[in-house]
User: Fold these one by one.
Assistant:
Number 1:
Amino acid sequence: MAITIKSQREIELMRESAKILANVMETLEHSVHPGMTTKDIDDMGEKLIRKAGCIPSFKDYNGYPASICVSVNDEVVHGIPTKDRVLEEGDIVSLDAGAIYKGYHSDMARTVAVGEISEEARLLIERTRQSFFEGIKQACEGNHLYDISNAIAAYCEGFGYGVVRDLVGHGIGTHLHEDPQIPNYRMLRRGPKLSRGMTLAVEPMINVGTWEVEWLDDDWTVVTLDGSLSAHYENTILITDGEPEILTLTPSEIAARKGA
Ligand code: MF3
Ligand code: CO
């Protein structure tokens, strides 16, 4: 399948989908506290997505049983929310959510602190976030896809972090996962050329230790092989003739960028 170019009408729908999702994500981020279960987050997220007139895209996707992927500490992605997993002070929790609005998908992830966290955890979250921004500095028309990958990898490797290789970002639109795949690790080729109207989900998954991961027996939860912490930061973006437009920034992120 080729990389799709979205029309102006499709871009409007992607923007709306992303804006709704980002609002939900911000509410979830603010709700995270010690003593709540990962299922509490999923219940809240599903309700908010539906209340806003969207469909939670992860629910039943290839059999995934929830609306929000909730991954704690050494869990990289695709953690399954349960009422037995209680968040504790010092944990870090990655929230990954997807919404469909009038047939158009948005996809985003944030890693948040549960109360006070270690300096190691704080730095990992901050640098994982920054790696996304380093990557998308390359995301302009005329550049190539793997310029994004290489920028993310170079930034993270500078800290000795492990860049997850088994999972990658992706194109997004009328499907959650469209072409192309977007690695976060170094590529020798430059990959396809970027054109305005492409919509991409760029999502570095970064570990304090080794890049290697394994799957738990539930066949979903991905964990670091060495048990080290992992963080995730994902946005749906639009390629333009200038800087990319980040469609899933949260209201407080938008305010912070304006203030900066
Ligand atoms: N956000 C994930 C991604 O980027 C999707 C989660 S897979 C699901 O690909 F099964 F949980 F939906
Ligand atoms: Co994604």
Note: The chain has a mean pLDDT of 98.
Number 2:
Amino acid sequence: MDVQQVFENNKEWVQSKLDIDPKYFEELAKGQQPPILYIGCSDSRVSAEQLMGLGPGQVFVHRNIANMVPNADLNVMSVLNYAVAHLKVDHVVVCGHYYCGGVKAAMQSADLGILNPWLRNIRDVYRTHQDELDKIADEDSRYKRLIELNVQEQCINVAKTPEVQAAKKDRAIKVHGWVFDIGTGKLIDLNIDIDAVTDKFSDIYKID
Ligand code: CO
């Protein structure tokens, strides 16, 4: 790929925006108030704004391998803090995707060096749901289910944070778990009732 093409694409994109609204970038430069924080996978096929049909200014985005929300990851915790406590988003989305290489790697026993501690977080999800997962004989179905359960566990990690706990008290912030199906292009809402899931152990993570 000729990287110079990117700059040509950019010129065309700028012009297409200005054709519709000559003040588009002037307005964009004034600030942001996105209603959604999206936490997704870095996978090149899962394109955040594009798959949601949203544009600049509409969604605050964090992406990493396998859309993880590890409790001690300064990067995702900083994004969460800024989006929830400062930008005051109303929705936090954790979006996984079928055919996720990160989740696939976690299901195998290969030594992947620096990726090991990251993937171990996914292996912890497997351990937490081992009874259910081990009963699924078909490997592809088990892989898909682990992707869904990983999204659920990362939603719990979001809900556990003091920022989200505080935001729940002063506004109706919602945590959503979604999966993008690369094979069809469809976005699937896992309909996780995060309050029902976290109510059971809310006292453990409570910060007053
Ligand atoms: Co992925």
Note: The chain has a mean pLDDT of 95.
